[in-house]
Amino acid sequence: MSTMATLPIVIPLAAAAMTLIVQRSLKAERVIGIAASIASVAVAIWLLVTVDQDGAIVVAIGGWAAPVGISLVADRLAVLLLATSAVALLAVLIYAVSQKSTDEELRGFHAVYQMLAAGVALALLTGDLFTLFVAFEIMLTASYVLLTHRAGGTETRAALTYVVIGLVASALLLTAIGLIYAVTGTVNLADLTVKLDAVPGGLRAGLGWLLFMVFGIKAAIFPLFFWLPDSYPLAPTPVTALFAGLLTKIGVYAIIRTQTLLFPSDGPVTLMLVIAGLTMIVGVLGAIAQKDIKRILSFHIVSQIGYMIMGLGFFTVAGVAAAIVFVVHQIIVKASLFLVGGLVESSEGTGAIDAVNGVARRSPWIAALFLPSALSLAGFPPFSGFVGKLALVEAGFGVGSWAVVGVSLLASVLTVFSMTKIWGGVFWGKPKDGSPFPVARGMAVATASLVAVGLIIAVGAQPLVEYAERAAVDLMAEGTYRGLVMGVQG
Amino acid sequence: MTWTIAIMAGVLFGTGTYLVLQKLLSRIIVGLGLIAHGANLILLGSGGEPAEPPIIEAGTVGTYSDPLEQALVLTAIVITFGITALLLALAFRSWTEQGSDGVEDDTEDRRIARAVLRR
Lengths: 490, 119
Hints:
The complex is a heterodimer of chains A (about 500) and B (about 120).
Chain A: H1 2-21, H2 26-54, E1 57-60, E2 71-74, H3 76-98, H4 101-105, H5 109-125, H6 129-148, H7 153-184, H8 189-195, H9 201-219, H10 227-231, H11 237-262, H12 270-288, H13 293-314, H14 317-348, H15 359-362, H16 364-378, H17 384-399, H18 402-427, H19 441-459, H20 461-476, H21 480-485
Chain B: H1 3-20, H2 25-45, H3 68-98, H4 107-118
Helix pairs in contact in B: 1-2, 2-3
């Protein structure tokens, strides 16, 4: 039982080592990488079902019980996001392998990719603040390599912004951990839930907001998002899709985890709601001003993060549950939109809106893949974005936060506007002469399956929402997490 | 936390922040190094006053210093060292490709500036 909870970290780590051993043969690397990703999906889904039925699985690493040792905690929230990210990782990997240029140009691509997967899994599963820092570093270091490996002069410069911001955020996270350890004497999350209560209010709030800010840099909330739209679009499509789908959402996960667990609030947190509203509006306004598919989508990442922070800011079970549903929806939809953007770039040679016309006529299947994802992002029923936004709006009405709900609806309308900009510019219009470049079948299949997963989320919205509600109840009930972790031996 | 460590960390953070806000990449990297040192110092100081080495022998009772934060700070030093090395390699590539060490203005800022000039 408890071994299963370590597998999501162990499988990619082992696969990374194995791909390094066989790196003379690209074929062997690909086989190992894809096999590991499939295995990760299987394990994550098994955990998803088991944890829901039998309760959370807690592992005390090395046999040292909490709070002395490091705990891995596979609770509902962690395994739900683990399963979602495993699916996204698999689809993007298949796309990357089919695109050929990605893993042919970077020796060791598969090793780095699996390290990133291990970092994501560790960040989701860990029950220890310092291990969370280490997980973020594993994830980010892998992302630095993926982002910069193909970059020329200008791209390297833009990627440097990403690395510098990452390093500053890491130093601040380390400072926050140091200060928390200084006042409580522990870095174990379960132990901190009690020990932080004894800390004076002002100091406690300061620590809480410091952590919020640090993870906010990683999640790209307003006003800490400027690094994102400049750096993400530079990477090869599969890498951008992965970053867009996963990395910022892990930041959001860390915010949700630490705020609900360590700094719970009795009612809506006004400052958080204000930040959420500004993130939504500024992100979507930035998107409207752009002229390139990937840059538009990058600004949308920022805008959508605002919705998740809004759900958390309500600080009710309904709000947190809605935020969780929204994170799941975003991981899938965002990754698939970027993959579709990559398909357009591959078949037309560029992603600039002005240069591409009439793709709906030239490659109708790409348009067919774009449409459900775009409508889902904008929140049209019956797609998954609608489910998430409806839950968020209902949660907002539940606590009477009318203003921020209004802002979120305005941001939705503007999202529709910027999506029509892509649709009108790229897919409609008079097709240019000549036939589109051929697109590898694997890229199309990977994108189509990720879009299909998005549709499945929409169809199976009821179970997902109920699952998220149970996860939110676990998060919001005081003492649940502590009860799980403390006293587990070996 | 002792005053010496607290003041040192403050000085490192202050100098580091000043350097990170400069326009030359080499200064930014040095600044990042200083900020990371400051963070490490805070982590090191979080264990309380220095005391006896934490090697507990049978039958002795004494005040021991906290070994945990020393383990944490070692991990943190290794990580920041690795990333700084990567950053230096990137800065070198950027320098060889572009021939300058300066940081360019933000893409959006430049777009807006161009739009204003055209008007």
